Amino acid sequence: MKMKVGMRQQRGGQGFSRSLKEQRSRMYIVMRCVVMLLRSHD
């Protein structure tokens, strides 16, 4: 258990950038869905 926590602390920067990329890709997917829904209403 302690080893895993240590590894997390060492790669904290990478984990943060990875989560940031995940958030951006999620927002991109959500925006595309919204655009498709708006277009389908037309």
TrEMBL record:
Record's GO cellular component terms: plasma membrane
The keyword Transmembrane helix belongs to this UniProt entry's keyword annotation: yes
Keywords tagged on the record: Cell membrane, Developmental protein, Membrane, Transmembrane, Transmembrane helix
Pfam families (alphabetical): DVL
Membrane-topology annotation of the record: Single-pass membrane protein
Intracellular or extracellular location(s): Cell membrane
Major location (coarse): membrane
Swiss-Prot/TrEMBL GO biological process terms: negative regulation of cell population proliferation; shoot system development
Family that this chain belongs to: Belongs to the DVL/RTFL small polypeptides family.
Protein name as it appears in the record: Uncharacterized protein
Organism: Setaria viridis (Green bristlegrass)
